[in-house]
Amino acid sequence: MAAGLPVALTVAGSDSGGGAGVQADLATMAARGVHGTSALTAITAQNTAGVRASETLAPDLVVDQIDAVFADFEVGAVKTGMLGDEAVVAAVAEVLADADAPVVVDPVVVAESGDRLLSSRGVERVREDLLPAASLVTPNVPEAELLAGLAIDGPGDARDAGRRLCELGVDAALVTGGHFDGDPVDVLVTGGEFGSGSRSGSESGPQETFRAERVPDAASHGSGCTLSAAIAAELAGDASLAEAVEHGERHVDRAIRSGRRVGSGVGPVEHLAPKKAAAGTAGACEAVRRVVREFERQNVSRLLPEVGTNVAVAPDCAVDPADVAAVEGRIHRVFGGSSGSATRATGGVAPGASDHVARFLLGIRETDRRISAACNVRADDESVAAVRDRWEAVTVDRADEPDDADGTMDWVAREAMANRNSAPDAVVDTGAVGKEPMVRVVAVDAAELVRKIAVLDAELEQ
């Protein structure tokens, strides 16, 4: 491929609600650093509550759009989404059969709302005409059942369906497991030219599984479009299949966790989530620096626990401690000088510098996305009494923490937010053997966190 911005093409329908279809594809491609082009196949009148009407465009017009893009751009990858009817499927399959670019097929059959988007004859055309022209197919469980002719009750069945799809001519199949009970498991099976790109083997070629935690009441509209578009974008940038799928899986997981709360039905995923998180990192780091300067200026040393204090600020769409800005080495109480003690940060500020406070903050944000800042302070009798007297505080008894808790701070956050829709001002952690008691203060932003700590510090001076 010539040097320059990679180009990808989406062949799909329009979602007037902006959450799926061409709208989702182009936003996702932009988030992956790829120029997105499009060939519209259908127009739908839909929103987060469902599809009201749809009209499929003439096959010749769809093909003309594809030809126009290929005539002017060096297309690095193509993805297909909603194709509307069997005539459009056949026409698209024919024109893409000769395309010198990998083709990712998202076999859109049913909308998130349950509305049918492709006829039975259209499904047959996908199976017989489009799959042999494709590099990868990304069906969800109902779509994989229709295409492979197999019942799917779990990852093992999904693997069998993926093998069947490869036998139909596609190079690889990624069966997405959002319909499974429990946490979703996506299964990748490769049987064609991409087989060498995966990392583990089976009788029919390499395969891999991708697991994620289920997000309760997730804004998940457009998740399938976003996944396939992200994979196509990565392939357009010359990633291997294994790399493209892995990056696409991470993209859609973050997009679901950062879903947009709009509309009256199932809201759309945040297609731009990775880009928003990266763009917010610099601002989050500067916000932490401002908090540190204020803590040092105010000398809040009486509030600092033995293990030190950390300040964490999460940018928009943060889902991992590596996204969260914090202090390297924490903030400590140092002794000496005329005042006796002072507050000093022992390191700089960087994304991923905190594990404990960052995980706690992210856990709170799973329920209350307004919260973006947190810090830990001493939990002696005087400070705990001041916290409870002035603020809404929740107590978490660490003695109740199960041995198999997946992450200490994740568990504390979940316990603190149990049966709540909004965060308290502070969480009092009673500690346990080998774990110092702690008060964790949360705030909507760094400025509010500074004000809260100043109020608490002044309370203890009286």
Q: Give the class-level CATH name of the largest domain.
A: Alpha Beta
| Low-pLDDT windows of residues | 195-205
CATH homology-level superfamily of the largest domain: Ribokinase
Gap from first CA to last CA: 70 Å
Number of alpha- plus pi-helical segments: 13
Total discrete domains: 2
Estimate the global geometry from the Cα principal axes: elongated
Helicity, as a percent range = 25-40%
- Strand order in the largest sheet: 3-2-1-4-5-6-7-8-9
Overall mean pLDDT: 90
Question: What is the gist of this entry?
Answer:
By secondary structure, the protein is α/β, with parallel strands linked by helices.
Describe the model.
With 462 residues, this protein is of the alpha/beta class. Helices cover 37% and strands 20% of the residues. It is built from 13 helices and 18 strands. It has a nine-stranded mixed β-sheet, sandwiched between helices. Helix 9 packs parallel to helix 13 and helix 10 runs parallel beside helix 12. 52% of the residues are buried. About 2% of the residues have low confidence.
